[in-house]
């Protein structure tokens, strides 16, 4: 046992048995081309691939007899340059020859579909209808005469196996396309072998999956292998089976996946491979036969002059007529049909080998019901489950969810999505445990508050402020993925509020998240939290009992209109879509003007200082208040300037001084007061490059036992540093 290969064998021998509690990163169900490509792309992770057959490849099935490779599934050569992976296939053969059509007792050949059809003596009206069909984007073969429908339907089935009338108009034009019958010397299966070899013992064959069940933080996959029942767990599952199989395996299927999978219909097919020796045949590439039992006949010359391979295809209804027949009987009938085609002297004595392959599902019918209104969300039937396969690789501009490149591309794309999902989960675990505040909890007694205990809070909303101050792609992704129905909360399971959502959305907006991405969130805030009668926003939604994601409130005062929410959200609405939300912004401005203190400040219900709420109010009124807000802004200016200390700070607080600086900027004031403030902020910066934390939030709540508890939240330093950074950058 020497060298790398010996070490590999030794590792397998001493590898400990996998624990039943082991959780894989990914389980891939199905080892067709989509599944193999995905698993290949994810092979650096803990990946398990389960395939029910004793071989991999799915509908890519290459077999070999007498030294000749032939394909019983996907037969046309794929474009290796279009694959999402690097692979150098074997020599590409171009099987020259005309295409043909056997119809009304005659076989005619041509170098194009139109040339072939012309030989059947089409009438002038038929020619005009055919021309109109070829040029009309909304074509419908059902509007053509029966004779043309049969001819076009036959040519259509040289690539698709279903009835042409069931397909999208865009795809019906495939009937007029001549497909090049290129094939690789070693067949399409060499790509399967390459991918399979890269997976090693990650692939388990003859593993029949029976159920895919989503659990709290993982997915359970139940399967049998060799008569033994197994359970495997993973953080994500990729299903690459045909759509109806996926629907049957999944316990949970969300919309729109459920409707899409339920709408899918598949065509069936039978392929017969014949090795023809010492026979002289017409030089054709393929021919179609609407009047005969078979659908399409493809000819492949080989490197041996005396041997050719004929592949006979039975599509859809013609395949159904072969059910119950033995392989030998199907081969006999196929050889009899060859004699009717008059393509050469072909009889049973010329057949040196044969093989039959039955496909219950060749490909999804690309119908208007399934693909007319494509929604990419169908590829995610539940939180931890993804779908891949050619049938979900959809380009709306050219809808062709079929074929090897589509399958491989789908697998590769979903592998990237899964990798991103797993990384986002890691980020969520990292950030959600990094609380930004230390919280002291007091019980409010009759005469004084009594300290009870301490905890930590704040792992979502205030990160929006940190993102705004110091753009960070990881943090941005964490926040985007922390949304609950498009809005955000203070920390997990706290429930969404407009104040918390606004903190996050402002950070996302300032770091390049497109307006159109945030527009649904803005609309959702209006729907849930805006009070049309007051023009204000409330911290709690009036319909919160009906919506699980909403904060439910912990004390009666939480239900009051919120100055902070009104100022913060009004500002965001004006930035995101000022015309769309003009009435709401106008209401916010009006409410702020009505609620300003005579001294010039605004007092919120969450922040220890009036200056934070005043900053939010000044910012909105300066942006959208117009002349009606001028007097209010003047009073706010006098209030802010009147509080500055001689050394340049506001109340000796970095946060208060920072928001005062930002308020002066919003007011358009470049004063010595602002310069003194900036110098003071800079002077408070610690040796470690950050600022010490300060109180940032307080709220009280009523416990179930009737006690009133005050939560006093003190920043650990990052929130204060973010405010200081924003002020210095202003």
TrEMBL record:
Pathway: Plant hormone metabolism; auxin biosynthesis. SUPFAM superfamilies: FAD/NAD(P)-binding domain, Terpenoid cyclases/Protein prenyltransferases. It is an enzyme of class 1 (oxidoreductase). It catalyses: L-tryptophan + O2 = indole-3-acetamide + CO2 + H2O. Transmembrane segments: none annotated. Residues 126-415 form the Amine oxidase domain. The keyword Secreted does not apply. Belongs to the tryptophan 2-monooxygenase family. This is Tryptophan 2-monooxygenase. It comes from Melittangium boletus DSM 14713.
